[in-house]
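2024-03-11 09:14:02 INFO worker-7 job=invfold-0412 stage=load source=structure_tokens
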């Protein structure tokens, strides 16, 4: 933190007024169902995004990041909130401000901000949600806005969906905002009901492994999978009065499998979502009571479904999982 403080003064010439932090997140189980109304089981991590902020007496916004350059500053006026390809990563911050402004709230207090994040980009640890939440928090502070934490979660999700153009669910932003030490969140992404669940590892460790395969939501198969789930839901709605895939159980899906004969891809996507939602319901109880072997079996089943039915794992992750199966002593698997 001291290095960041010194860098702020060297970049902007004065000391900062406020410091903010937002963590990244991992999802223990409940993959790719937060946009299908499913239950997820994520937790916050110690890595995250820092933002040091100084308030200005005008309407100028100045952005800098140690992750990009410790001297480069992008300066814009408070009225210049349109997406701009030339503004790169700053669009993620601008999107937050623009989304709040669209709600009719004042966001024109000038500022200088220096970001630093220790979440690897494209690692699946929610660096964009972390950047969004930390930005939303300081915009709320310096403009004296009466937005709740949940309001900021919704703002950050809406910004990524509508401003950046990625159809994310709400899990990332929710976990970044509400995650706490030594607990995971059991979150119903349809109702936003949640509970904090103590995670008793009892000598085990959760290991975050880097496959060295980067991905960006805007460029990945993410939007394609979302469209496939929408196709599946349309077929299902010919038989059941539901608004989300995860409102079904596996028996109900199997009963109408013939309706998917012309779109078995959509069927497999639905089968993953529905079975994963069931696995989450069973998994949540395990870490609370230290039942880690049973929890690990559910993670293995989750990976198999992600590989075979959702087709999102990739050879790098599959290789790590296969190698893990041969170990006599193994850490808790994370997918």
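2024-03-11 09:14:09 INFO worker-7 stage=emit residues=335
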């Amino acid at each position: 933190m001291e290095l960041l403080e010194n860098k702020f003064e060297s970049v902007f010439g004065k000391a900062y007024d406020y410091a903010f932090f937002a963590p990244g997140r991992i999802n223990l189980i409940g993959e790719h169902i937060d946009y299908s109304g499913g239950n997820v089981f994520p937790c916050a991590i110690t890595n995250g995004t820092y933002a040091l902020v100084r308030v200005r007496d005008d309407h100028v916004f100045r952005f800098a990041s140690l992750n990009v350059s410790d001297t480069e500053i992008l300066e814009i006026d408070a009225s210049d909130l349109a997406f701009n390809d030339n503004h790169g990563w700053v669009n993620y911050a601008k999107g937050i401000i623009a989304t709040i402004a669209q709600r009719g709230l004042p966001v024109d207090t000038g500022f200088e901000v220096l970001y630093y994040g220790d979440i690897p980009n494209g690692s699946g640890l929610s660096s964009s949600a972390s950047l969004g939440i930390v930005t939303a928090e300081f915009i709320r502070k310096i403009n004296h806005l009466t937005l709740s934490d949940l309001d900021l979660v919704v703002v950050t999700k809406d910004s990524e969906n509508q401003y950046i153009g990625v159809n994310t669910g709400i899990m990332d932003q929710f976990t970044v905002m509400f995650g706490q030490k030594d607990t995971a969140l059991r979150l119903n992404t349809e109702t936003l009901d949640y509970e904090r669940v103590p995670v008793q590892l009892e000598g085990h460790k959760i290991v975050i492994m880097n496959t060295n395969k980067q991905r960006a939501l805007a460029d990945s198969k993410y939007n394609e999978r979302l469209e496939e789930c929408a196709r599946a839901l349309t077929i299902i709605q010919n038989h059941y009065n539901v608004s989300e895939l995860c409102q079904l159980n596996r028996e109900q899906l199997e009963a109408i499998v013939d309706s998917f004969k012309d779109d078995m891809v959509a069927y497999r996507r639905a089968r993953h979502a529905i079975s994963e939602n069931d696995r989450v319901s069973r998994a949540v109880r395990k870490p609370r009571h230290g039942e880690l072997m049973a929890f690990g079996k559910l993670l293995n089943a989750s990976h198999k479904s992600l590989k075979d039915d959702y087709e999102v794992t990739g050879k790098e992750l599959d290789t790590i999982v296969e190698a893990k199966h041969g170990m006599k002593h193994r850490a808790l698997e994370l997918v």
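2024-03-11 09:14:09 INFO worker-7 stage=report msg="The longest strand covers residues 39-55."
2024-03-11 09:14:10 INFO worker-7 job finished
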